[in-house]
Amino acid sequence: MDKEEKVVTVNGIGGDETSEAMHEEAVNELVEKMSRLDITDDEEMRGIGEDTGNLSPRRSPKKEEPTCVYHLKRVLWHGKKIPIVTQNENGPCPLIAISNVLLLRGKIFLPQLIEMITAEQLVEYIGDAIISSVPKKLLVVSCISRLLNYEQNVQDAIAVLPKLHTGLDVNVQFTGVTSFEYTSECNVFDLLNITLYHGWVIDPQCPEVVSAIGSLGYNQIVEKIINNKGSNEDELVTEALIAEQFLEKTASQMTYHGLCELHAAMKNEELAVLFRNNHFSTILKHRDELFQLVTDQGFLHETKVVWETLSNIEGDGMFVDGHFITVPPKESTFPMDSDNNEKCCS
Q1: The whole model's pTM is what?
Q2: Which residues does the annotated region (Disordered) include (predicted)?
Q3: What are 283-302's pLDDT values in tens digits?
Q4: How many other β-carbons are positioned within 10 Å of the β-carbon of residue 46?
Q5: Quick check: is 93 catalytic?
Q6: Over the Cα atoms of the chain, what is R_g?
Q7: Which of 44, 135, 169, 198 could form a disulfide with 58 if both were Cys (CB 3.0 to 4.6 A apart)?
Q8: E strand or H helix at 286, and its extent?
């Protein structure tokens, strides 16, 4: 433990290191606080049985308020039929992507017979998953100040959950597949142990682009282009034009270098979330190949269509089933094009 972390005083508690008794008391107090956090104002009963999980009963959504309802599709996963949340035209991308990672990991369970679920209910399930993960994580936290920091992170994440309905404020940085400007929204992924990736990475073999963009995020690059295109300094104008050209050439928000970096960064059998085209999707690396979970509601009744290969940046991957065998799907009723993706996360 670092020297500056050895002496901690919180509510009159101090000492060289947190004693075991004090640590246990602090953990219990924090867990109790977490259990009292209000995630949403909606209610729904989960059901009874081992497939309902071990969390408290849910409440039902208020009938007087309109709500988004999403169809569930049961797909083959590790020899079992697991429900995933499908996406309609303007579905809440991050909410669905995170929910599906947790469903496939077995971190949340849904009643066997339900066919639809509301956005509010999904928010509660995710909130419960965050809170239920607190005790295990705190076992490795031995400093009171770190406990308090963890408590603040959980509270910040719970406050962000309602934003999952419409999208999250994500600012990509072009230096690596896990490089994002840090915001409170990142806490949701961190606490759930879900890695957020992107593939919008500059090829280091393009030094002029590297120099023009550096470690700036997307928002800063757009601002730089606007401010410098009309500059009297030739160097600033040149950098602005190079940055603008890069954004135009990589409008799909993925480069081949980024795809290679993504493949190298992910571990086999890792489930994660990919941000691309202003859209969040569930991804998997299986036997050294990348796949995206097919959540388009147009494939709701095509039970064999489960994953789509992510082998190029053109978006023309092959569909595979739960055994990762290629299947010829019927034409989708609701194609998920880039326009719809932008709507869902705008």
Answers
A1: 0.80
A2: 1-22, 41-65
A3: 999 999 999 999 999 999 99
A4: 22
A5: yes
A6: 22
A7: 44
A8: strand 279-286
